[in-house]
Amino acid sequence: MNAKRYHAEFRCIAGCDERYGLDEIVYRCKRCGNLLEVHHDIDLLRRTSPKKWREIFDSRAGKNTWPYGSGVWGKKELVCPEVDNENIVSMFEGNTNMFWAKRLGQMIGMNDLWIKMCGNSHTGSFKDLGMTVLVSMVNEMIQRGKNIKAVACASTGDTSAALAAYCAYAGIPSIVFLPYNKISTAQLVQPMSNGSIVLSLDTNFDGCMKIVQEITKDNSIYLANSMNSLRIEGQKSISVEIVQQFDWEVPDIIIIPGGNLGNVSALGNGFKMMLELGIITKKPRIVLAQAQKANPLYLSYLKGFNEPFEPITPGKTLASAIQIGDPVSVQKAIKTLKEFNGIVEQASEDELANAAALSDKTGLYSCPHTGVALAVLFKLVEKGTISKKDRTIVISTAHGLKFSEFKIGYHEATLPEVSSRYANMPIELKPDSDRVLEVLNKELTKRRNMGMYALT
Ligand SMILES: *Cc1c(COP(=O)(O)O)cnc(C)c1O
What we know:
alpha/beta, 17 helices, 13% strand
C-alpha cells in the first residue's frame, strides 16, 4: 500500500483557520500562539474499511519490511503519511510487549492487570516513538533543501537520549539542554555517547525549556520538544498497539504518568482516530498520574479544570522525568481528559518508591515514573474508582535500568521521605558452607512467612 496518497497537516488546537504543511518549521499558531496538532484527512483514510486496517496493521507487526516493521511506521498512514520511506529514520521502535502483571494483580485482587512496557525500546523510554517521526521529518526537510543546522531539545533526560540516538543514526547534529544535576547518570551518558552537544544549565527543566525556545526562534535550529506535535503523532501508536495486542478489544482503564503532558494527549488522539475510522467502538477511561512534588495538573483537576491553569515550581521528586511545573501541553491534556472521563491522581515519594519496589518483587523492574502510575493504581482500586474486574493497563514509560541510583538508594534505604518496605540488600558472608546454609535457611523461612513466594 502506498501511504503517500494520504494527507496530514498542522492545525491550531484552538480552532483558528491556520494550516501549515508538516514540512514547515512552525510550532505554534501564527495567529493566536496556541499549540498545533497534526490533522489527518480522515475521509481519505475512511475509504479503507476498519477490517482492512486491522489486517494491514497485523500483517506488518514483527516483520522486517522497511519501514513497516517499526511499531510506529507500521501505522504510517495514521501517523505521518507525508515522509518518503527512504527518508525515514527508524530503529524499529515500538511493538513493545504487554506484561501480564499476574502476581502484582493478585495482590490487589485483580486478574486483568497489564503493564505496557514502553521502556523496552532502543533508548529505554517511550520517547523513541515520537522522536523517530520528528527526526524523519527533519531528514525529509533537509533532503528537500531546507536549511536546518541542528535539532535541539530541553529534557528531563529521556527526550535528549532519544534525540541524540536518532540524530546520530541519521548523521544530523543534535543539541540537548539538561538541568544541571537533575537527571540520572545513565540518561546523561546517553547523549554524550551519541555525540550530542550536551549543555548542562544551572536551572530546572522549565528554565531549559525557555532557553531552547529562544535559540530555536530564527528557525535554523529545529525544536524537538513535545510542543512540536510531530512527536505526539508517533506516540499515538501506543494506543493502537494496546488494542491490537488485545485482538482489537479496548481496555477499560489506562493509567499513564504525566509531566509535560504530551503523552497523555497522544494516547487520547490514538483512540480518537481509531474511533473515527471505526477500528474500535468504545473509549477507555484515562487516568493521569502525577508525582505529588510536581502536581500542577492534579491541583487544577481538584478545581474542575475551570480556573486558568496555574503553573507551580516543582519540588525535587524521584520521578525526575516528570519534575515539571509548567507543562507545555497542558491544554491538550485537559481536553483529552475531559473526553476520556479522565481522572488525575497523585503519588508521594514514599508511595511511588514502594509501589515500584513491590512490582519488582513480582518480576518487573519499574522506573520511578511507572512507580507513580502503580501507586495511583493501588489508590484508585482501594477507593473503588477502579473495579477489580476492569481490564487495566499501566503505561510503563521508561526502563528501570536507566534509574539505578533510584534502585540502589531504595534498597540502601537512603531515599528522602521514603521508608523502604521491600529493601533487599546483599548479605555479606565468609565463604563457609555451614554458615551459608544456616543463613539461607533462615532467609527462606523469613521470606516464606512474609508471603513473598507463590508456594507456601
Ligand atoms: C517524558 C516522560 C514522561 C512524561 O511524559 P510527558 O509527555 O512529558 O507527560 C514520563 N515518564 C518518563 C520516563 C518520561 O521520559
